[in-house]
Amino acid sequence: MSHFAQYQDGVYADATEGRLPSLPYHHEQLRDMAAGRLEPGPFGYVEGSAGRERTADANADAFARYALRPRSLRPGAEHSGDLGVTLFGRRYPSPLLTAPIGVLEQVHEESELAVARGANPVGVPVVLSTASSTPMEEVAEAADEWWYQLYWPSDDELAESFVRRATAAGASAIVVTCDTKRLGWRPRDLSLGHLPFLRSQGTANYFSDPEFRSRLKADPEPGGVFTEAVFHFLGAFASKALSTENIARIRQWTDLPVLVKGVVRGDEAADLVDAGVDGIVVSNHGGRQIDNAVAALDALPEVVDAVGDRATVLFDSGVRSGADVAVAMALGAQAVLLGRPWVYGLAVEGAAGVEHVLRATLAELQITAELMGKDAAELDASDVTRRP
């Protein structure tokens, strides 16, 4: 039985001793604190989205269109509220994971290591971005549980190297992001000329990779051919020919579960499952890739229907609270990836800020599930309705 809800009791108990929380519990307040800590470039990179940011707005607005339908007086309701879920044969204490977000060195000097230290006490797996600021092997030493997110590069041999490294380092799953064949049109970054990769930020997995380094005339270290390494990275970052056939090749490189992230159509999800994918992450990249795209939450039921029980469906984009997680699970997600909120916690208080956000999200989720009269994994379409 999960006990995340006890976090709320601890906050009130601390208050009786005059100890109030140093961080807020509303996403908007935490975001504003992070904006005061970060330089405009890094803050705009995290907060910004594609075009007029209509997709990002739609992601958040979509949650307001769905209402939970509590039924508190269920038989056995006194036992409800457990958050445990089983994914790919492994039992997890909650359905929450950290979404893969790269270039975290611009947010906090300890980057992914701080994320791991914040997530470990809460039992939340870290999904590590290919564009991380720390090599995957170092993150593996710090993280109790982690998955590896792959931006499939233009060089298939480099893709294979990344997957084999992640498998050898102890990742529990491979998550292929399919919606980033190139960077989306992001006006905030353009206005500031802020592309951190040009400063060699977010390149740690590349610069530490033997396959990548073998393509260079000199090592990408101080005194090496820095410009060559950066521009080779930019050329290798993403494959424009990514297809279900490419993704199926991962089976030759790893025996880990393989998920594809960035799917908002049922027909594409079905094709991927036919190709042997184990899981789908319904996501529009938090609105960062295409402006005026469908809200990820609105796409979730279609993907769930198309996949059925043939694969595991996860969700991200627009999640800002534990109640949002409950809505996504009622619509069919078996687990949820949380993104921007913990990044702002990281910016303000490092590992402690990450832990704060995750604990608060899980406490609200457990309280919501208890008040719904169900365990989180039992939430289904009968527990949610679309508002007029």
TrEMBL record:
GO terms for molecular function: FMN binding; oxidoreductase activity. Keywords: Flavoprotein, FMN, Oxidoreductase. It comes from the Bacteria. It holds the Pfam family FMN_dh. Residues 19-388 form the FMN hydroxy acid dehydrogenase domain. Its cofactor is FMN. Belongs to the FMN-dependent alpha-hydroxy acid dehydrogenase family. This is Oxidoreductase. It comes from Nocardiopsis kunsanensis. The lineage of its organism: Bacteria, Bacillati, Actinomycetota, Actinomycetes, Streptosporangiales.
